[in-house]
Amino acid sequence: MTARRVILEMGAGNDLHGGDYTKAALRAVQDALHHSSLTMLRTLRVDPKTMLVDVTIGVQRPDRVDAERVRASLPHGIVTVQVVKGGLDVPDDERDDVAVIASAAINVRLELP
């Protein structure tokens, strides 16, 4: 069997003060998850634990994202997380602060004939 993408959801998240890239990434993942309903899994009698879930996070400082925390935030499936350069930093020079905007893409693949 071949794993085929059956769901693609996208989300955005931010941390407005403090420059916490992991917080922004977690919020982006939650945003994507809240756009999705996996009723198809129940209809097809697919065990959610068997889903292959590929998460891509885009932020300006990928090295500052705790990918394991992002992975642990997903409720089901065999999860992989990749953090890449993307998103947006919005500096606040008056306060020496940055607003971090993260993007998330969540691909769900199932083993299908």
UniProtKB/TrEMBL annotation:
Gene Ontology MF terms: GTP binding
Domain of life: Bacteria
Pfam families the UniProt entry points to: Lin0512_fam
Keywords for this protein: GTP-binding, Nucleotide-binding
PANTHER family the record matches: 50S RIBOSOMAL PROTEIN L34
Protein name (record): Uncharacterized protein
Annotated source species: Belnapia rosea
